[in-house]
């Protein structure tokens, strides 16, 4: 590959993943996802390349010169555009991904719900891997190309890349929350992270709150001048002496029309009816869908539902709570502990309140395809989305987009980015156990006319603010930030 690409997407993962077979062959599966479908039209318009890791390991210790074995090259036709694989060794992944990304940044940026760990031996591979991504982009970018860097695993890439290629236009988007300074300042490498992000022309967050936190920290930590739209970074190569970094909120969304269309098919309707029948046709089906992550507040919901059963507000057999929890980050200790805690809670509740043939809770620790998820969304009278903190949360948007007939109720945490937009949901503070119980009861018992008004308003919002609009607004803002150069 040559330095010919005018649009580069850099994300921790490629939009395809490798499935290595015992006979040495590799199958490549396209990973469907919001980001891929949002970017697909833009990628097609450009000579684009996507830089990321494929999920397969290079031998440790990683060295570009001496791979030990050649990784089979990626086939040309598997992705939505050209793909460039960044190699990672197994040990490196532990430090960079499971370590610094998921045991330091992830908990710190989610209000320190789990205690972040600060290990120097995690920071070093984080820097090394970020540099590898930046170098690859520097090699592949055409003069003046646009680069869009994604998420918390790659916060140093913008600055590294700017040093290598000052001609590039660099945008960074953070998919998780950005914390207030009281928390962020714990980070021993706080200055390096902020300087890394400030290598961008545009830094985007899901919410105005995240953007404001970031701006305040640039002032506090680096003494830079900022206002609500950006920050001035000293730059002696410019006549003005400063380079403007634009900062803003770009709430991500889903392909609303696609979910709406899926939910209208006869097949998915039939599957939703079948799900309800298998659950015993209760009056209420209540649903939770998440990655099994301690930020998502799965325990909050289980507790609320169980206490309502205990107190007799919900009669056994009247309602079934289905919790779908996708296995996630199973090598990180906090996630192993969480799984045990949730399964203990489910087991206890079933022991105390189960009826023969009619368990009040169904717990599925499995991934499902999108069609199946939409069938569950259609089958559910109430969707419970109760994270302690969430950058956005797409599940609640998928639920709303799937409720084509305007029925259904969404209970949504105030601490999900989506709460800024979906103000017609039953908003709750996930730390307030009584408040969550009350919101669930309100959602179950609300008058159908009120429910339908709320759902209609949320659906209208999502049809107008879909993922294509998100991608376009970020790329437009990036282009405009260039005009300020
Ligand atoms: P996540 O933390 O992964 O994303 P979320 O936004 O809810 O959270 O996205 C999860 C996605 O996985 C959804 O599209 C959902 O349908 C899918 N999913 C969940 N359970 C599944 C299952 N059992 N089987 C198959 N698919 C399942 C991070 C941030 C969020 C932010 C997104 C996008 O933490 O806050 O909204 O990135 O920026």
UniProtKB/TrEMBL annotation:
Task: List the PANTHER family.
Answer: BCDNA.GH08860 (PTHR10788:SF106), TREHALOSE-6-PHOSPHATE SYNTHASE (PTHR10788)
Organism, by scientific name, is: Longivirga aurantiaca
Which Pfam families did the record assign?
Answer: Glyco_transf_20 (PF00982)
Please state the span of the N-terminal signal peptide per the UniProt entry.
Answer: none
At the top level, the lineage of the source is: Bacteria
The record's family statement is: Belongs to the glycosyltransferase 20 family.
Record protein name field: Trehalose-6-phosphate synthase
């Amino acid at each position: 590959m040559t330095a010919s690409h005018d649009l580069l997407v850099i994300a921790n993962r490629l939009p395809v993943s490798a499935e290595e077979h015992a006979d040495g062959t590799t199958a490549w599966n396209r990973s469907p996802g919001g980001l891929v479908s949002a970017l697909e039209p833009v990628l097609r318009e450009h000579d684009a390349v996507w830089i990321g890791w494929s999920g397969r390991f290079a031998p440790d210790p990683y060295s570009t010169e001496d791979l030990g074995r050649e990784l089979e090259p990626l086939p040309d036709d598997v992705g939505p555009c050209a793909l460039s694989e960044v190699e990672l060794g197994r040990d490196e992944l532990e430090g960079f991904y499971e370590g610094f990304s998921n045991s330091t940044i992830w908990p710190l940026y989610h209000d320190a719900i789990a205690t972040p760990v600060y290990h120097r031996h995690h920071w070093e591979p984080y820097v090394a891997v970020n540099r590898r991504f930046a170098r690859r982009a520097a090699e592949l970018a055409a003069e003046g190309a646009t680069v869009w860097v994604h998420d918390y695993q790659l916060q140093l890439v913008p600055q590294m890349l700017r040093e290598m290629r000052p001609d590039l236009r660099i945008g960074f988007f953070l998919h998780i929350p950005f914390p207030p300074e009281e928390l962020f300042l714990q980070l021993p490498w706080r200055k390096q992270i902020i300087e890394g992000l400030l290598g961008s022309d545009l830094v985007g967050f899901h919410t105005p709150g995240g953007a404001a936190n970031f701006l305040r920290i640039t002032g506090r930590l680096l003494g830079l001048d900022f206002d609500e739209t950006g920050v001035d970074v000293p730059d002696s190569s410019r006549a003005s002496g400063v380079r403007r970094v634009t900062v803003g909120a770009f709430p991500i969304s889903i392909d609303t029309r696609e979910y709406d269309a899926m939910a209208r098919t006869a097949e998915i309707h039939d599957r939703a009816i079948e799900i309800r029948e298998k659950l015993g046709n209760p009056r209420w089906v209540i649903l939770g869908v998440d990655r099994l992550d301690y930020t998502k507040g799965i325990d909050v919901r289980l507790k609320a539902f169980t206490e309502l059963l205990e107190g007799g507000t919900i009669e056994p057999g009247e309602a079934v709570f289905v919790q779908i929890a996708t296995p996630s980050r199973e090598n990180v200790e906090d996630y192993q502990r969480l799984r045990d805690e949730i399964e203990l809670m489910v087991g206890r509740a079933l022991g105390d309140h189960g009826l023969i043939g009619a368990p009040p809770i169904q717990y599925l620790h499995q991934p499902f395809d999108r069609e199946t998820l939409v069938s569950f969304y259609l089958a559910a009278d109430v969707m419970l989305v109760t994270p302690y903190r969430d950058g956005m949360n797409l599940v609640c948007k998928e639920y709303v987009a799937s409720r084509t007939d305007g029925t259904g109720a969404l209970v949504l945490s105030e601490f999900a980015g989506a709460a800024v937009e979906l103000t017609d949901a039953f908003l709750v503070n996930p730390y307030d156990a009584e408040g969550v119980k009350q919101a669930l009861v309100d959602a179950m018992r609300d008058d159908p006319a009120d429910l339908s008004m709320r759902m209609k308003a949320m659906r209208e919002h999502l049809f107008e603010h879909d993922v294509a609009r998100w991608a376009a607004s970020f790329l437009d803002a990036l282009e405009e930030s260039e005009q300020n150069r």
